[in-house]
């Protein structure tokens, strides 16, 4: 951990009654959604000039802690999905109502509630916008559901028993990966991680999602997976983190989408909860159970190096 | 060996651990691993160590211990022994103690101080005929801290459960006591009156290890065998939750700093199980407990040899005040502190903002103004700045280089592209190989083509020149139109060696490669390299000369690559010039320029091929010199992109220099799309529009069909497309606005049905006529409309009331008015449209 730079952090009180489980910004960075143990989702406007937050709405509808939120691409309007311990995924949509005096009222409605899981829904992730409104969610019942909005209704495709004992995270692959598929072919893929210590890759085939690869390497529950955004890069990499205190970067060097070489970042002091790539996919942020955030970048030495650590 | 441990409730940096003796440890900060600790210290976490400060050896293997929670106790502890005695003792030089002895000898099962009222000590004992199972002592009564004791005088304040067994006892706030009895019941006693009252009873086998959640006092846990029961004392008949374990449970403990977090130790286990019961109420009807479960295995450092992740734990203790801190002990005496942290969220937004939660209610953010981004060298931050500065959009190619002046390779590439374009423009009429290419590289110029066998062929023919003017035996050079064009691309020019860029040694080397030895010596002499000049002046082409011998032996040690190249050339170190051609410190341009003079055709081709492959492998932008901006450069740019993630440069290069290849290359399209995504997410709409315009300018096939046209009210046909729709329509749409007055008059009616177009609601003339004819020219403020006066006559309308007119008229109207100009319409058009903000 050489020459780590220090964080200069802006903190912001979410106004939730209890612990926050997730905070996500939308594609344009103008809206922030947070969700919490207090069963609510809160939405804020973000001032892009000074970064200040204005409270917009509190969304009530879940009956348990809300684990994760996700913004749909703005081309589909202002839309948010949230998943909760109460086994539901709720799709929230913002609509504008123009009053007679010309004032605009913003309203949030739960446009659809998916209740197809038997246990807590732990993760939601929107597919690349090229594929329309499409979302994957993973549940403690071991299943993964892919919901897609077609012909004015939500189509449901379910992968039962995707991960024994539960699925903790889902993450879509970028829409086009030049090294894996011919670019004129539309291949939909996502990765998932679960309590069977596995990271799995799923590919759409004849309207079903089939297991394309199973990545074995973690020794305890996989907590999060993050497929690296491509930004035109041909490298295929997936980051996963686990209760076993490790973060693994899976590299698909052969470009076949099946054989992935694990690269272990480091064994940390505590459980690693989340991993997240920056927008071009060359820096990985890792948040540890020890309330720390560190940033990792692959250096010329071909090794992943920690460039910053919030605890320092 | 450690049997059990407890953090002192008062002096919270002290830890009690006991087995055959009772040790009091003091925590202290220590250097992080792998620094050695001073002797007598044991490491308890990465930054904390423990030292023994006191020891009590009089009572080996006590059954139970509880540290006195009052502030006046000076570290007093209560010990329950196997013979039923309860000892109050303190650490120190003179051990002061007090002893409570039951009438009948039996084991003490449990004892606990009342946290709210520290005088009271509850003791649970095994069964004895006609004796009580629970005794509650008031230590403030009678003489305190006297040496020697009066056990005969001391009587318990309250006694409960005659002829019964107390398996465990636990206080609930100040005046209630829970007692696990006879292996059958948990009883809740109300002790507020002098006469104890039984308030409720639960029938259960789980009578052991009763503990109360201090954060939420009606929540109680107990265990039996491999089951943990969670109770709500307000509804005590049946357990609120039953948590099954695979092994027998040996200890329970609620987290004192967070509600509803229960730590649970199984026998022969190397880890703790943590149950979060906060949300347990949810799924009662399903029968399946909805409890979040985590396992905590202490993370011992590798340096700690006595324990690893499989070492069996003997006990654990929560720290009373420090959040999340739990300390575990193993049977072989290793004590280790772990932290139980909440899950942290972490998300990196497309706009370079990294946000994470702190396990509580606040979110932390850093954005690209943070120092961290400097150290990250995040390409997306650089790209955004470059995009704002108009990178790739400047009309002159070289101007784009100035925007990326911080990246020398990119800057040089843009400069070279500009140079290459003008050079090609000038020369393309003499050189058939480049007549159709705008940015040729050496491969194109030299007519290199891959053949089926994977090799490369070329049809160039060069003229061999034997240079009599120079004394090298090997001074054969080759010349052809193509070769000299490549040399020009490399920036080589015989006429103006003094104008060359770079160091004097480079100039000298290039002069020499043009076989101008005297000039080379002169250049070196004029710079501060006169020693080298002298050495070169002694040049002798005699194969066996002393000069050659010495130069050959020593030139490899010189630091300047160009001086090395000069000596390699003069000494003819190898006949094929390998030393110079593979001198990686020479620029690609100079090596290529050299090869064009001195390599015969076949060798030149294979050299170009070899060096191209090398450049592609390295993603080195100087390789563009070889590939040109042709489809051959795509693998090189892809490699560059993989290494740098700079999708911006490859996308703008694609639209500026490879426009004609975009349609046929999915990769180019992908880069362009990804870059447009980036511009979108940065909300750089203007830059994206300009990017699209540039992209389409060189490639009309990419222009999307218009999605909206203005149609006639009467016939419904597009007023801008007389006759044929489809091909050519787009150009007509634009031509509509670039009109003369004559044309405007012609289009004041629908081109299909000849009915007049609607009227402007201000000037009441039909649309398509010139502006407000008859009045003076409206005051046109160019700034407000952009640089397009034609736009003033465009037709615009309100999306709500559908009234409209000439843009400039409406603009003037709404400068002072809020309502629609059509009389009788009360629509507040201008307020409805937030996007269209007229500058005031």
UniProtKB/TrEMBL annotation, chain A:
Its main location: other. This is Protein SEC13 homolog. It is found in: Lysosome; Nucleus, Nuclear pore complex. WD repeats lie at residues 59-93, 215-260. Keywords: Lysosome, mRNA transport, Nuclear pore complex, Nucleus, Protein transport, Repeat, Translocation, Transport, WD repeat. It comes from the Eukaryota. Pfam families: WD40 (PF00400).
From TrEMBL, chain B:
Residues 712-830 form the GATOR2 complex protein MIO zinc-ribbon like domain. It holds the Pfam family zinc_ribbon_16. Residues 383-598 form the MIOS-like alpha-solenoid domain. Keywords: Repeat, WD repeat. SUPFAM superfamilies: WD40 repeat-like. Transmembrane segments: none annotated. Gene3D superfamilies: YVTN repeat-like/Quinoprotein amine dehydrogenase. CDD domains: mRING-H2-C3H3C2_Mio. It comes from the Eukaryota. The keyword Acyltransferase does not apply. Belongs to the WD repeat mio family. This is WD repeat-containing protein mio. It comes from Orchesella dallaii.
